[in-house]
Amino acid sequence: MEYNPTYNPFSLKGKTILVTGASSGIGRATAIECSKLGAIVIITGRNSERLQQTYDSLYGLGHLQIIADLNNLEDLTSLVNQVPILDGVVNNAGIAKTQPISFIKEEDLQKIFATNTFTPILLVKQLLRKKKINKNASLVFTSSVSAIKSDLGNSVYGASKAALQSYVRYCARELAPKSIRANSIHPGMVNTPLITGGAHSDDDLQTDAQKYPLGRYGRPEEIAWSIIYLLSDASAWITGHSLIIDGGISTLI
Amino acid sequence: MDLQEFVAHFAEQFEETDASVFTPQTKYHELEEWSSLIGLSIIAMVDEEYDVAIKGNDVKSSVTIEDLFNIVKERA
Ligand SMILES: NC(=O)c1ccc[n+]([C@@H]2O[C@H](COP(=O)([O-])OP(=O)(O)OC[C@H]3O[C@@H](n4cnc5c(N)ncnc54)[C@H](OP(=O)(O)O)[C@@H]3O)[C@@H](O)[C@H]2O)c1
């Protein structure tokens, strides 16, 4: 048998994929990598300048960018109305704030859960109700290793991501009759604006990165590639799964 | 903004070290009880008490409590 260079079950050719949080970090890399693998991508974020930068980096034609603050129900509804029928949704927008237990502010608690947990749930609800999710579609949710393991000062973030992980398993079960799959990914520390300039100093981050069995933090593309696997038909029989992508850090604790 | 009060808030984040140890000149990284969790608590305390966002890099680069106070005062 001759080798067929066009054979590729991991391809996203012909798929239309919505990526939230596409104006930065993991979402931006995911949008770009999806476009490289043939997908039409609908990218969304709040910051128009950075979303435009992502848009300008996409390969191929037919992509769409939509500005939306997903915590605002009007924006969310307008986004859902504008998107075409989707074969994949990457629920990736998220925020983090480090706060030791005794300093948790109610305001931050509300905002972190709203962004990381409630918004993806409401987005999927609306997409389903408006029949924007195709048969055989794949939903991917960016959770975190923080949902499974603990790191100092991140209890609210971890809890918001654990709630999301649990929701994804329910999603997988309830949507299976429609042949829609749902999986979560759980990255360890990835070099994006989310982790820099916060409560951890650059020195602390460097020291922490050395604790990773693979010796470094992740790159956004390395997360994108796992998301793409879950979006592609290569993962057609995987649903309700939590995929850890963390350079081995969760083997240590 | 009051320096003595800042020192008192700083001291409150410690369990073992006696409050009398803390002065504006205290080099806090050298305290035996100093830890990364206390560093995170200092950042959160500054957020709560002074509504100022300081960063891990500020806590790392400051030497004395007064150094950190000056950063907070500047941004208040
Ligand atoms: N970096 C890591 O180490 C790491 C590890 C594990 C999991 N994660 C998760 O990975 C996801 C992406 O993180 P990242 O590292 O790429 O962070 P990032 O660079 O800070 O990007 C976050 C993205 O989320 C968007 N976003 C936040 N709040 C939003 C809102 N209310 N409405 C619409 N968009 C909103 C931002 O949009 P604008 O910038 O346009 O406002 C941005 O595009 C997050 O869910 C995060 O929790 C990250």
Describe this structure in words.
The complex is a heterodimer of chains A (253) and B (76). Chain A is an alpha/beta fold and 253 residues long. Chain A has a single domain (16-243), classed as NAD(P)-binding Rossmann-like Domain (Rossmann fold, 3-Layer(aba) Sandwich), CATH 3.40.50. Chain A contains seven helices and seven strands; from the N terminus they run E-H-E-H-E-H-E-H-E-H-E-H-H-E. In chain A, strands 3-2-1-4-5-6-7 form a seven-stranded parallel β-sheet, with helices on both faces. Chain A is globular and about 55 Å long. The model of chain A has no long low-confidence stretch (mean pLDDT 97). Chain B has 76 residues and is an all-alpha fold. Chain B has a single domain (3-75), classed as Non-ribosomal Peptide Synthetase Peptidyl Carrier Protein, Chain A. Chain B is 54% helix and 0% strand. Chain B is built from four helices and no strands. The longest helix of chain B has 15 residues, at 36-50. The model of chain B has no long low-confidence stretch (mean pLDDT 95). The chains are: A alpha/beta (253), B mainly alpha (76). The A-B interface holds A 98-100, 102-103, 105, 152-153, 197-204 and B 36-37, 39-41, 43-45, 47-48, 55-57, 59-61. Residues 21, 23-27, 45-47, 50, 69-71, 92-96, 115, 142, 144, 187, 189-190, 192-195 of chain A line the site of NADP nicotinamide-adenine-dinucleotide phosphate.
Structural class of chain A: alpha/beta
Summed up, the domain count of chain B is: 1
Helicity range of the residues of chain B?
A: 40-55%
- Span between N and C termini of chain B? 9 Å
CATH topology name of chain A, in short, is: Rossmann fold
What is the CATH H-level superfamily of chain A?
NAD(P)-binding Rossmann-like Domain
* CATH topology value of chain B: Non-ribosomal Peptide Synthetase Peptidyl Carrier Protein, Chain A
Largest interface: A-B, 16 and 16 residues
CATH top level class name of chain B = Mainly Alpha
CATH class of chain A: Alpha Beta
Looking at the overall shape, the CATH architecture of chain B is Orthogonal Bundle
